[in-house]
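Milestone 3.1: sequence recovery, worked example.
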């Protein structure tokens, strides 16, 4: 059960509410987000909902039977929207493309990518400065200095930045330079990191774990929300399966299911999802039709020379076509399902 509290609930009203919850045998957790205050109450006993709903200081009350509560669409029927500022929004009818290299490699690369994005009216640039790599001998990112160059180039063009944070102590130094914190598939259940991102007032994009279920992804989002941050994007990026013909199995089923189960916007990453450059576009367009609120795509001025993930990275020329096809597909989809 989710109990939305009045903003300045009186202490005696709060005490009365808690007493009532205890009386019906419910356990509760107080959640204070940047938007409002809630009590998330868990229990099995059946009771007259009015015994809580009629109490003073209670704004609204919803029964939510899912394991995850605050990210569930059962209480928040209207889809959430992430506002990145300067008119750039994601969700509730606003579609965004995020594009850029797997790894930030240097100033020239950043500059060329920014120019490419500006030319194509793409508003969010991706690029990792902390890279989770399977081998410790692979390129592991330029770190905070790379992020500063990234920020400098994007800021002047009004491009927003999404980049991966791998551990808690990176959050603070990164904060100023980041518009969306990305949590990678390998950190999908790093609950301490998720809690810490709950204390941040910037959007967080959660990638689905490598073998993560939809429920686990939503529970990860519940960590961030219940720690205070309601600005969350969910990202389907493919899961590990028995199939070896491609890097991951992009689970497009997850898109309508997530959008049904949760009010949070859903992003799809077709680059990691299939891992093969020549098939990225079709999977991107399929993701749009499946209902995605945005796409995150790897592009590079010379994919063959990319420091990481070149095999799934589009050239600028390929990406030009992709953006145009995405925009046409979004328009087609919105008309079809309007
Ligand atoms: C990435 O976006 O480059 C990345 C490492 O993604 P994932 O965490 O989905 O593997
Ligand atoms: Mn990558």
């Amino acid at each position: 059960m989710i109990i939305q509290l009045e903003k300045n609930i009186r202490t005696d009203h709060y005490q009365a509410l808690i007493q009532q919850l205890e009386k019906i045998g419910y356990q509760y957790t107080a959640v204070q987000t940047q938007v409002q205050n809630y009590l998330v109450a868990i229990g099995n006993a059946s009771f007259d909902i009015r015994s809580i709903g009629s109490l003073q200081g209670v704004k609204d009350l919803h029964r939510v039977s899912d394991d995850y509560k605050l990210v569930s669409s059962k209480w928040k029927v209207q889809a959430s929207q992430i506002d990145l500022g300067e008119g750039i929004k994601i969700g509730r009818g606003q579609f965004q493309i995020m594009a850029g290299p797997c790894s930030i490699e240097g100033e020239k690369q950043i500059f060329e990518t920014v120019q490419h994005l500006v030319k194509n009216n793409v508003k969010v640039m991706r690029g990792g400065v902390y890279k989770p790599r399977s081998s410790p001998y692979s390129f592991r990112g330029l770190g905070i200095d790379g992020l500063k160059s990234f920020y400098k180039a994007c800021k002047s063009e009004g491009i927003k930045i999404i980049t991966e944070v791998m551990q808690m102590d990176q959050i603070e130094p990164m904060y100023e330079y980041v518009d969306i914190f990305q949590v990678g598939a390998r950190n999908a259940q790093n609950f301490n990191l998720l809690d810490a991102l709950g204390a941040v007032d910037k959007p967080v994009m959660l990638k689905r774990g490598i073998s993560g279920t939809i429920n686990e992804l939503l529970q990860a989002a519940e960590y961030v929300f219940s720690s205070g941050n309601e600005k969350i994007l969910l990202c389907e990026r493919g899961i590990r399966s028995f199939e070896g013909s491609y890097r991951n199995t992009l689970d497009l089923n997850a898109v309508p299911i997530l959008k049904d189960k949760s009010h949070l916007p859903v992003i799809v990453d077709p680059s990691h999802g299939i891992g093969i450059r020549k098939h990225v576009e079709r999977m991107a367009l399929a993701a749009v039709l499946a209902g995605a609120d945005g796409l995150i795509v790897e592009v590079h001025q010379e994919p063959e020379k990319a420091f990481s993930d070149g095999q799934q990275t589009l050239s600028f020329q390929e990406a030009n076509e992709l953006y145009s096809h995405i925009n046409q597909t979004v328009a087609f989809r919105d008309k079809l399902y309007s």
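The pocket of phosphoenolpyruvate (ligand 1) is lined by residues 102, 128, 132, 184-186, 207, 237, 272 (CB under 6 Å). The chain has two domains: 2-62, 82-336.
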